[in-house]
Amino acid sequence: MTSRTPRKSRSTSGIAASANGPSASSISAVAALAGVSTATVSRVLNRSKPVNAETQQRVEAAVSQLGYRANPFARSLTSGESRLILVLTPDFLNPFFAEIVQGIESVTRRSGYSILLSQASDTAPLDTVYERLVDGVISLAHLRDPKALSGTDRKHNLPWVACSEFRPDDDIPYVSIDHRQGAIDAVQYLLNRGHRRIALLTAAEDYTWARQRRIGYEETLRRAGLTVDPALIRVARGTEYADGIEAVGGLLSLQDLPTAIFAVADTLAIGAIKALRRAGRRVPEDVAVVGFDNLHLAQVFEPSLTTIAQPMRELGQAAVELLLGQLAGEKPVSRMLPHTLVVRESG
Amino acid sequence: MTSRTPRKSRSTSGIAASANGPSASSISAVAALAGVSTATVSRVLNRSKPVNAETQQRVEAAVSQLGYRANPFARSLTSGESRLILVLTPDFLNPFFAEIVQGIESVTRRSGYSILLSQASDTAPLDTVYERLVDGVISLAHLRDPKALSGTDRKHNLPWVACSEFRPDDDIPYVSIDHRQGAIDAVQYLLNRGHRRIALLTAAEDYTWARQRRIGYEETLRRAGLTVDPALIRVARGTEYADGIEAVGGLLSLQDLPTAIFAVADTLAIGAIKALRRAGRRVPEDVAVVGFDNLHLAQVFEPSLTTIAQPMRELGQAAVELLLGQLAGEKPVSRMLPHTLVVRESG
DNA sequence: CTGAAAGCGCTTACAG
DNA sequence: CTGAAAGCGCTTACAG
To answer: Where are the annotated segments for Disordered (chains A, B) (predicted)?
Structure first.
């Protein structure tokens, strides 16, 4: 808020506000200067109703002369909308989410909405202030019951879009790639390259995307007549590099090492490569590694990563469009975006 | 906003609001249920004035029964504060900023403030809606005139803290490391290792930190009796990996290659290493590389990065504390936090 | 096309 | 300790 001066007197009438020290001018100051009512100023500002051209010019002149911008609290209190969208992400540190947010921002910026970015995790539950502040939510995070941020939310029916992390059986609209198919493509690629002992480096399965990718992995192995060896499935604690390093540790003590690892995130793949190298293994000569996401880092890391590319910007953009559609009263239709296999050095 | 139902009738009195379909209940509904006035409910909610213990319990019971949460717009409109802080970052993709934001969040979360995260750049100027929405700003970004987000801001005197990117001669309080000294430590380290031809990979100098680090670089060379060779100073377009790769390109065509590169960001250092490798140079054997920041990636990348470590979480935390102090009426005192040299494989 | 006025949901002097 | 009521700065039927 730009005006922090507490209200002093209850007798301050509209026009006097413009003399209110360094505080922002109010709509009544603009009205007075332009010689019109506040209703007219409001109409000009919001283009909500036709206004005489000459009147409009006077108002606009007054607005710019006073440097007036509407008080968003007053506006939202009356209009019932804030033009604010909450973006819920599990982790600011994972570049995957950052890229999606870039996509989200590119659309909101030109549609008059602003975003409010928040990290959501089970340990640090969502700030409930946000819920009543925003017109809708785009969630990249996993929430036990997404619709129930806090007790009362189910009732309030906050418009909601799931991005990448979604539940197919839910009624929440979503935008995502086909995680299962992405995993199938990755594992099939490794099979085609002659690998038969393929490990899976995955994340905690409260994430749908992790579960779906595991299913794709297992399905592909079975379809190829191979058995799924539980010893070759490693679950990382999170998706940071260190989590990948740690999770792969157990693999290295196996007598019969896998010849390939499919990691469900590029960050985990990079951690895996690091761990393999520390153990004196070469990638891809001794062990091939395939990642998921295609972060910018994937082509810079050495060896560069073979990975499943997600259209991250497009995911973000599509999520906003879906949400904005909902806000406009359209019925949401979920979308699957295409992924691609990018072959580089690591596998 | 959770209640999107437009107001239908002007005769809806307070209590009726609770029957208002699926919308959030209002303070008058709570008051009615508890058998007190809205003033008393407000006092209980904000602990702003003593309330009889038994009354308080009745109010609290009503609040939880109705799942009531205050409408933040109405609250802010009257109270004059939003408990929202704007965090301005140049680039979501650079993990350096993500780590600082983590630090910021850890403090705001427990102090009742929420953050609003926005990317600011010259090409995409700040969303002016934010300015009137927040109680204060923490900026990691470079702005020509930080106090003048838009025309009228100077007047409004939005409390402001600069984090890492600051101007020593400004009156804006800041939290940062000593960029010049960090560069001195990096370059001196390379000199101590016997390097005499040390290149600088820097960023556009509208960033103070980039300018300060160049100054430290030049100073250290001169103090060692060396001349500064302009051919060895490369300015990257941004701070992404690709910018580092591109900027180092020119260096590689030099007849007399440097034996070391000091990059003013880890992301640039990684780009530089990538470019060197592509050109068939070994790091550190042919060319040593020292970075800046100490991202998580710095110890995972191969070769791991020798770098100047910034206390990123602490920078974020200190920035919030400084801003909150200002909001509480304290006079801000800027702080310099310590950095350290971390020696690893790259140089 | 325009204005007077009610109302959005809170907080806070003011007066008990 | 508590309540009636004004006021925060907007928007929007309603009535010209």
So the answer is: 1-22
